[in-house]
Amino acid sequence: MPQITLALSDIPEGVPHKPEDADVILIRAGDSVTALGHLCPHYGLPLAKGVIRDGALICPFHHACFDARTGRQAQPPGHGDLSRFAVTVADGRVTVELPADAVPHAPPAHGGQGLDTRRVVLAGAGAAAEECALRLRESGFEGVIEMIAPGTLPPYDRTMLSKAALAGKKGAADLVLTDAEGLAARDIARIDGRIAKVEPGRVTLADGGTHAFDRLLVAPGGEPIRPDLPGIDLAGIHTLRSVEEAEALSEAAGAAKRVALIGGGFIGMEGALTLAKRGCDVTVVMREDVPLERVLGTRVGRAIMAEHEDAGVRFVAGAEVEGFDGDGAVSAIRLKGGAPVEADLVVLAMGVKPATGAIEGLPLEKDGGVRVAEDLSVPGLDGVFVAGDCAHAPTPFGAARIEHWRVARQHGARVARGIAGGTAGLADIPFFWTALARQYRYLGHAEDWDEILFDGAPEDGPFLARYVKDGQVMAALTAGRDADLAALHLRMAAASGPVPA
Ligand SMILES: Cc1cc2nc3c(=O)[nH]c(=O)nc-3n(C[C@H](O)[C@H](O)[C@H](O)COP(=O)(O)OP(=O)(O)OC[C@H]3O[C@@H](n4cnc5c(N)ncnc54)[C@H](O)[C@@H]3O)c2cc1C
Ligand code: FES
């Protein structure tokens, strides 16, 4: 078996160390050394750039967390435990045994269906539902698992739709998370259907079929807002939520002369930049003066706007869309009191609403979300949980409905724990990323703040912004200071929430 040897003194403490000639990271605590796989199971990025604190290793890219002693994955995204390799330390020398067929990570062990007669129904095949299904099987749950969602596609990586998929670099098959074979190996039944009604112990599908459950997870995600405006049904007006929509949009972009995206949120900003990079003539039409202002603040929003303008994206700010012109196909967006914006391809990026509108029997909030308890159960509905984009759930930063991938996966894992048991591990600190001109990463949750403390300038190079309320850091944003944000994450996890500014 191949070995590597090196001096213990060459391994620094407190940071992952990757020897130049070996695909492994070494984590040293005094005289003890752990050797783990060097690539993150999420997108395969290098964990040598990770941060370690209190026995946890965090990937700085999208904040997957691992037990630094065992390699066990403790927090999403991605799904796999880091391989752990045998290490001996003697006379100040460290020897690591690396099998020839070593892999950096592997899916956690799982079982399948057994004699347990309990039935878990998952309404959805997205981020929250997939995480829940996998975790259930990994924690030994042997009951029935039915994953019901429209279509037959297995769960896929939706975050790629506005990035590699829209860029034409990845197709539907590249986005699949657990394929049909993987679902079958775990006895997870992928059923084509749409949940239309929830009653005690059973769901009814839109086609009238019923499925009994002992536990039900409702995770239907969001649906893009389509305003009821004149001309909305003209050809050439697209939304971007599913793989089918991304493929249609990507194809249309190839032939479009002028593209306009309506909305200055994350999907609008990512979509605009991806299409501009493809050579499209791109305009963003938005109600606000500065994109992402409400979530990230004016200064960061302005910096992002400038980066988009540098890439050739034009903005029509402070605009109210009145309707769409065109003869069969869209030719322009009509604005209240402003000149029309010519476009033969329009993307509605005006936000999403919870896809709960057509599901009877759920206690809906005004925005279509469902208020849930700490374990994501719905008060008053026995055995029913809501997770992901639809859940108005407690977080260490106050209750919130958060529409982001890692949070949905945390929810799925939490529901699985509630059903099948298992350890809670690190506190669920919300996190999201967005791929714009730079990779922006955001930690925590702040709906408002007293001040934003900047370390570095967002207009000019790497920076870390901290959103402070009542002297506490409620959230932080970075571009280019990933290790600092990851370290803050582990501080927040240790504090189970905000930390002093
Ligand atoms: C283009 C795009 C880019 C994104 N980029 C990022 C990013 O960079 N970073 C980030 O953090 N987040 C990103 N997100 C957000 C992230 O994808 C969502 O927050 C996450 O997918 C929510 O997970 P979910 O399980 O709630 O819903 P989803 O993943 O949307 O899954 C919902 C599932 O429910 C099914 N369904 C719908 N209605 C029903 C019904 N009635 N019955 C049964 N099934 C139903 C759907 O078909 C789907 O399978 C992006 C989203 C989009 C659309
Ligand atoms: S590559 Fe590690 S979390 Fe995404």
Automatic annotation (TrEMBL):
Pfam assignment, any one:
Rieske
The residues covered by the Rieske domain are 3-96
Matches recorded under PROSITE patterns = RIESKE
Keywords, alphabetical: 2Fe-2S, FAD, Flavoprotein, Iron, Iron-sulfur, Metal-binding, Oxidoreductase
Give the cofactors, semicolon-separated: FAD
Q: What is this protein called?
A: FAD-dependent oxidoreductase
